[in-house]
Design brief:
Layout: H1 11-25, E1 31-35, E2 43-46, E3 52-55, E4 67-68, E5 79-83, E6 86-97, E7 100-106, H2 128-148, E8 156-159, H3 165-178, H4 182-191, E9 193-196, E10 207-208, H5 210-224, H6 228-233, E11 245-246, H7 247-254, E12 257-260, H8 263-272, E13 288-289, H9 296-299, H10 302-311, H11 334-362, H12 367-372, E14 382-387, H13 403-411, E15 417-422, H14 430-444, E16 452-455, H15 460-469, E17 472-475, H16 487-492, E18 497-500, H17 505-509, E19 515-517, H18 527-551, H19 560-576, H20 579-622, E20 627-631, E21 637-640, E22 646-653, E23 662-669, E24 681-684, E25 686-691, E26 694-701, E27 707-717, E28 732-733
Parallel strand pairs: 1-7, 8-9, 9-12, 12-13, 14-15, 14-17, 15-16, 17-18, 18-19
Antiparallel strand pairs: 2-3, 4-6, 5-6, 6-7, 10-11, 20-22, 21-27, 22-26, 23-24, 23-27, 25-26, 27-28
Helix pairs in contact: 1-20, 2-3, 3-4, 4-20, 11-15
The structure holds pyridoxal-5'-phosphate (PLP).
């Protein structure tokens, strides 16, 4: 949320902070839960050789905006979580974020053994056992805390799989406190849970060995009366296999609402997890997307805020989520827009000089070096920023693929260009650290000196100066590894322009009017080759398009074409990628519906829930008896004339089910190599009559064109209380 409160690492934490602030702006009754990491955050400095060193400042709770939560008797309120052979206690810290309460759980208390006190020390620990302990404190402890402070949740939004055990605790709670069956409790929890996946990288999805799951989650297995195999299946893509327990499959199975964080990431996630619903078409897989956004009041510069007050709306910060107001960006006069940018760049340069100077003093740099820092960078230069985690897929090295060509770009005195880099590598990521060291080495050579600057210790403060002060924001991820990315949005709302691989948000945002793309989204198997092609494209676009556009000035010394782009980029990004749009979508698509499901299902002592689950159990028992008997067209291929209406009739043995328990659809199209019908047109069939257990369903279709058509018929369950109409194992094809 703020640099004064270092309790995050990278984009996921920053996004959560923006989400909380936005929920406050929108008056949503949201409560946030996290862990208080004693050594979660590290600050970065580089040694003389450019090798990243880490410093772990201890979190001093007394100097942070945190208050311990007390119970009625005045002692710290503790939650208990059972772990093998012992109980672990956690206290919690309360942070008030506007109108939203954030609680951070903390196991570092004297009630725990010396070893257990360390559970919440570190963020993203490698040790799997420690991870599962942390996730139990977050998920199970988090829900128990809410119960104790009388804020038991109606809807839970799991931000990435780390908090997945919250579902298990809620299931256990409804079974033990309300006497529900496992099916009832899990259906209730599912219909009121939202899950957001944030990574398109398979390895980024956490898994646990069976033995660890059994060791730690035993109490939940017995409370649910599930066998070990049934329990493990909840976290598996393929049922009854030796697959490890995956947190993402578990979340997908146990949440009615699932989403990725950009349009492209939604598509990639559907492909990544399609095996869970291997019998559906990819576009039917119930993983949707809500593209991330940024909290504009947090990231906006003073200069632009003032321009907005003057030319957009004096109360713009109360109307961020109203897209119309941002059309008024066009009213900002060119010279004012340009001056604001210049002022912000000067500030960034002053900040960079101070940072570099301080770093040199710490490293006992020479007097000359320290004095030179005061002349670092220039406000006349086209300033290109690149700041992000130094994960390999972010490819910070791409700009340096051809050093000679880069040197040539940087050597121009008539069209000066400079780059500012910042970012941390994960402490265990040697490759990431090597990229940083390489940039430092290059930046010391003649021809690069003073034109490439690395700012140490990328944090929210550095990010703010950078995103507000640069002219261009460079992003070179390996598509489609960037789930969304938000730093480019922060740049665009402050008048900077994006130059990026079309990945994450940029894949859906990019148009010629607002910025530049490197390549057209090609994905190559050979990454070496891809680097080669895309670095070449990057140099080309810098030399031929970006640099000329910046230095092409009219008589008043303004770059007209550039300012035009800035305006389009500003108004579009402000309207489409602010976090009120994002949280508004969560509210409309998920929170409201999940909350309505919850209220409906629990009303009258869980009446609707019991009825629905009674039906579901009956349906599952009967499912194997449901069979296709015959079809009016015996072959699954026919020749049709265009515009000719064709009637279909399916006879289905529905056993003891009612016709209304099923939804029958027909899919028509061509056929792929595997015999699967490529879905071009689909129609729901209607119940016509029945004869014994055989139900007759009919429909008519008028193909838009003539030719050979393949078709296939599908059976799904149907019930008004069924939130997600497609469940992994309840699909039948003719
Ligand atoms: C916004 C932000 C991020 C996330 O942005 P990406 O585009 O994903 O890199 C990460 N770190 C900091 C400090 C930020 O401000």
């Amino acid at each position: 949320m703020h640099e004064s409160f270092p309790n995050y690492s990278g984009g996921l934490g920053v996004l959560a902070g923006d989400h909380i602030k936005t929920a406050s702006d929108m008056n949503l009754p949201l409560v946030a839960i996290g862990l208080l990491y004693r050594f979660g955050y590290f600050s970065q400095y580089l040694n003389d050789d450019g090798w990243q060193q880490e410093n772990y400042p201890m979190v001093d709770t007394f100097s942070l905006p945190l208050e311990l939560v007390f119970d009625g008797s005045g002692s710290p309120l503790l939650v208990e979580v059972e772990m093998p052979g012992r109980k672990i206690f956690a206290q919690s810290w309360h942070c008030i974020v506007g109108k939203v309460d954030l609680y951070l759980l903390d196991a570092n208390i004297s009630q725990n053994s010396f070893e257990d006190r360390k559970i919440t020390n570190q963020l993203y620990v490698g040790d799997k056992e420690l991870r599962i302990q942390q996730e139990m404190i977050l998920g199970v402890g988090g829900i128990r805390l809410l119960e104790k402070i009388d804020k038991y949740p109606t809807v839970v939004h799991m931000n990435e799989g780390h908090s997945a055990f919250s579902s298990l605790e809620r299931i256990r709670y409804y079974i033990t406190a309300h006497g529900l069956s496992f099916v009832e409790a899990s259906e209730l929890v599912k219909s009121s849970t939202v899950f957001t996946t944030h990574t398109p990288i398979p390895a980024g999805n956490e898994e646990f060995e069976d033995s660890l799951i059994e060791k730690y989650l035993h109490p939940f297995m017995s409370a649910s009366r599930l066998s070990m195999q049934e329990f493990l299946n909840l976290g598996r893509i393929h049922q009854n296999t030796g697959e490890k327990f995956g947190m993402t499959p578990f979340c997908i199975r146990s949440s009615a609402y699932c989403n990725g964080v950009s349009k492209l990431h939604g598509r990639v996630s559907r492909t990544l997890w399609r095996e869970i619903w291997h019998e559906l078409y990819d576009d039917e897989i119930p993983i949707d997307y809500i593209t991330n956004g940024v909290h504009v009041p947090t990231w906006i510069s003073d200069e632009f805020s003032r321009l907005f007050m003057r030319y957009v709306d004096p109360q713009w910060f109360r109307k961020v989520g109203e897209p119309e107001i941002w059309q008024r960006i066009k009213n900002i006069p060119s010279n004012e827009l340009w001056k604001a940018g210049e002022r912000l760049k000067e500030r960034l340069i002053a900040f960079a000089r101070k940072k570099v100077r301080e770093s040199l003093m710490r490293k006992s740099g020479s007097r000359q070096e320290i004095e030179d820092a005061d002349n670092l960078l220039s406000a006349d230069s086209l300033t290109i920023g690149f700041a992000r985690r130094f994960a390999t897929y972010k490819r910070a090295y791409l700009l340096f693929k051809d050093e000679e060509r880069l040197k040539k770009i940087l050597s121009s005195t008539s069209r000066p260009v400079q780059f500012i880099f910042a970012g941390k590598a994960h402490p265990a990521d040697k490759e990431g650290k090597e990229v940083i060291a390489r940039i430092i080495h290059i930046a010391r050579q003649d021809g690069f000196k003073n034109r490439i600057v690395f700012l140490e210790d990328y944090d929210l403060e550095t990010a703010r100066y950078l995103v507000q002060g640069v002219d261009v924001w460079l992003n070179t991820p390996l598509r489609p590894m960037e789930a969304c990315g938000t730093s480019g949005m922060k740049v665009a709302i402050n008048g900077g322009i994006n130059l990026s691989i079309p990945d994450g948000w940029w894949d859906e945002a990019y148009t010629e009017d607002i910025g530049w793309t490197i390549g057209r989204g090609e994905e190559y198997k050979d990454h070496e080759y891809q680097d080669f092609v895309e670095s070449k494209a990057l140099y080309d676009i810098l030399e031929n398009i970006v640099i000329p556009a910046y230095f092409n000035r009219s008589a008043d010394n303004l770059p007209k074409e550039w300012i035009n782009k800035q305006r389009h980029s500003l108004s579009y990004t402000l309207a489409a990628f602010n976090s009120e749009r994002m949280v508004g979508e969560y509210l409309q698509k998920y929170y409201n519906n999940a909350s309505r499901n919850y209220k409906e299902l629990i009303a009258g002592n869980f009446q609707k829930l019991r009825d629905y689950c009674g039906w579901l159990v009956h349906l599952k028992n009967e499912w194997e008896n449901v069979k296709f008997v015959s079809f009016s067209h015996q072959e699954n291929v026919e020749y049709y004339h265009a515009e000719e209406t064709v009637f279909f009739e399916a006879q289905i043995d529905i056993g003891k089910l009612k016709p209304t328990d099923l939804q029958i659809s027909i899919f028509i199209g061509s056929q792929d190599g595997t015999g699967k019908v490529i879905n071009e047109q689909s129609v729901d069939m209607e119940f016509h009559h029945s004869y014994g257990t055989i139900a007759f369903f009919t429909c008519s279709i008028t193909p838009q064109s003539g030719g050979v058509f393949y078709y296939s018929t599908r059976i799904l369950p149907a019930h008004p209380q069924m939130v997600r109409t497609v469940e992994p194992d309840l699909v039948k094809w003719s």
